[in-house]
């Protein structure tokens, strides 16, 4: 469900939150300033990401944060970057599959150019194409999300998907290599 993620200032404290109706929320909270906001399809993802990143600045028993000027600039950048990131974790796997396809195509052309033979070049290409999936399995991310501040979203399901797809690609490489 789409909604807004916002960053507000109240005195020298800041608050990150999500809402479906930004105007109503601002009237309720009565902040000194609305620093930035963004409408997104999945506000929970961005809000959780930002709250996790700044959890050490959180004031206990409140929803407010004590942020430095540098952290405020960083936080605002995250709002700007949101449009460049995948909207879902499944998009992460799609990006990785696309990278695998590109690597397969490129390595296939290179191996054919080097006269490895058609069957062997396809086999080696499947092996090369499994590298992005192996990276997804190891890190839980393929660059769409910064996993160091988002371990919550470096989900086991992404790692398992990456592992199984890598195993399938390596199995294809092995079978094709042995057939040739």
UniProtKB/TrEMBL annotation:
Task: Identify the Pfam families for this entry.
Answer: MUG113
Segments spanning the bilayer are 93-114, 126-147, 159-177
Tell me where on the tree of life, at the top rank, the source sits: Bacteria
Assigned keywords, A-Z = Membrane, Transmembrane, Transmembrane helix, Ubiquinone
Which residues belong to any copy of the Bacteriophage T5 Orf172 DNA-binding domain? 8-79
Mind telling me what this protein is named?
A: Putative NADH-ubiquinone/plastoquinone
> Which organism does this sequence originate in?
Prochlorococcus marinus str. GP2
Upper taxonomic lineage: Bacteria, Bacillati, Cyanobacteriota, Cyanophyceae, Synechococcales
């Amino acid at each position: 469900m789409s909604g807004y993620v916002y960053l507000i200032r109240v005195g020298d404290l800041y608050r990150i939150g999500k809402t479906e109706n930004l105007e109503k929320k601002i009237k309720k909270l009565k902040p000194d300033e609305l620093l930035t906001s963004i409408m997104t399809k999945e506000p929970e993802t961005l809000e959780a990401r930002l709250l996790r990143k700044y959890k050490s600045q959180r004031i206990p028993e409140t929803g407010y944060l004590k942020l430095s000027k540098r952290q405020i600039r960083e936080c605002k950048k995250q709002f700007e970057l949101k449009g460049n990131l995948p909207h879902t974790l499944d998009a992460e796997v799609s990006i990785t599959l696309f990278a695998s396809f590109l690597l397969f195509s490129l390595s296939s052309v290179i191996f054919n150019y080097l006269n490895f033979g058609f069957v062997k070049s396809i086999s080696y290409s499947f092996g090369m194409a499994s590298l992005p999936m192996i990276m997804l399995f190891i890190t839980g991310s393929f660059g769409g999300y910064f996993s160091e501040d988002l371990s919550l979203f470096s989900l086991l399901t992404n790692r398992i998907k990456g592992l199984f797809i890598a195993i399938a690609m390596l199995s294809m490489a092995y079978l094709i290599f042995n057939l040739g």
